[in-house]
Amino acid sequence: MDPNRIIIAIFEFAVLLFSLSLHEAAHAWMASRLGDPTARMLGRVTLNPIKHIDLWGTIILPAIMLFIGPGFLFGWAKPTPVTTANFKNVTRDDILTTIAGPGSNLLAAIGATLVLLVLSRSSLTGAAIVHQIAATGQVGDALLASSPTMVPLVLLFYLAIVLNLILAAFNLLPLPPLDGSHVFRHLLPYKALRIYDQLGILSLFLIFLVGGRVVGYIVSPALFILRRILLAF
């Protein structure tokens, strides 16, 4: 494997691990704030990835995707346990707890963009590196040689933008067991809800069949806008 690809793979996995931990910690924090201490008592209000790792979703699947690459990296962590009976307003609080996860990933993507804007304004070298990575998403030998310190830093935050946008969009799909389904089910009438909750294996089939394509339609324009912002400064 190309040495540059190995570096990118390591960075991708590190960013994915942080992003998944942030996602689950946000669920746990919001649930705790709204009156459910279940996740907090289990130590899930933390960015420590050990508390959130799922063997298949956090380790094995990402490792396979990195080995097969190139392509976008994806995975999942252990679901955050929530006891909705502890909420004062079950519908409202369940929705807020649910969207806290994807919301944290969206905020992380915006935060990473702001960091890159600061790095771009810090020096001419920083601007050149940010512009090239934002324009191409690639790291060549010449670029790496120009600044062995700045290039990995810019790459790390650029990958944070991409992976967090993907996680936010994917988790908001209204298909069980994704976060979006927890919000969508509150909008359904009782008869439709019974059918929706019985999707089972069909839902998983739809996720794998069309999930990636739908996420691409959502992430591509968002990433385009953030790239234009980075290239404008």
Give the overall silhouette.
elongated
Domain count: the total is 1
- Please count the helical segments: 10
For the record, give the distance between the C-alpha atoms at the N and C termini, rounded to a whole number: 34 Å
Rg, please?
A: 19 Å
Structural class: mainly alpha
H/E topology pattern: HHHHHHHHHH
Low-pLDDT regions: none
Largest sheet: none
Number of strands: 0
β-strand percent reads under 5%
Mean pLDDT: 91
Helix content: over 70%
Task: Explain what this protein looks like in three dimensions.
With 233 residues, this protein is mainly α. The chain has one domain. 72% of the residues lie in helices and 0% in strands. It is built from 10 helices and no strands. The protein is elongated, with a radius of gyration of 19 Å. It starts with a helix and ends with a helix. The model has no long low-confidence stretch (mean pLDDT 91).
What labels would you give this structure?
single chain; about 230 residues; mainly alpha; elongated
Give a brief description.
By secondary structure, the chain is mainly alpha-helical.
